[in-house]
Amino acid sequence: MATETDPTTTDPSTEDPSTAADPQTVDQAAPDVAAPAAVTVTTGKLSARALIEEFEATQLKSDLPEIYVGDTVKVGVRIREGNKERVQPYEGVVIAKRHGGLNQTITVRRIFQGIGVERVFMLHSPQVASVKVERRGKVRRAKLFYLRDRVGKATRVKQRFDR
């Protein structure tokens, strides 16, 4: 009858003396082996809501400018074509702002070849490379959906100089 041996345990008497080494030699012999990452242990139990809020706080962008409805903005959008990635600018008037925090979005409207085009951008998305305010708009409404019905010079928004 054959006896089974556990491969994880070795008998020190059968071990080759050239391979047996002290811990200092082992660290020098295998520098490419990564040490385990430091694990942070919390003693209290976090609620699901607290975990979500903590994760969302890490995802927020800190370099966004103050954007108001009526502003003309230039949004740099990351576009991936095959294995190449480039940033394409999209310039237009902010006609709406929605939500807050990580889900904050702006709706930008521009006229392209005589046709109105609107895009909704999630500001904290990785697809949005940059946001730059070109000029401030002087408006008295929270949403500028009435610009959809206007054409030509009637779509202009007065400029604001105090912000």
From TrEMBL:
SUPFAM superfamilies per UniProt: Translation proteins SH3-like domain
Ranges where the record places region Disordered: 1-33
Stated role: This protein is located at the 30S-50S ribosomal subunit interface and may play a role in the structure and function of the aminoacyl-tRNA binding site.
Xref: PROSITE patterns: RIBOSOMAL_L19
NCBIfam families tied to this protein: rplS_bact
Gene3D superfamilies linked to this entry: 2.30.30.790
Protein's name in the database: Large ribosomal subunit protein bL19
GO cellular component terms, A-Z: ribosome
Keyword list, A-Z: Ribonucleoprotein, Ribosomal protein
Record carries keyword Ribonucleoprotein: yes
Organism encoding this protein: Aphanothece cf. minutissima CCALA 015
Family from the record: Belongs to the bacterial ribosomal protein bL19 family.
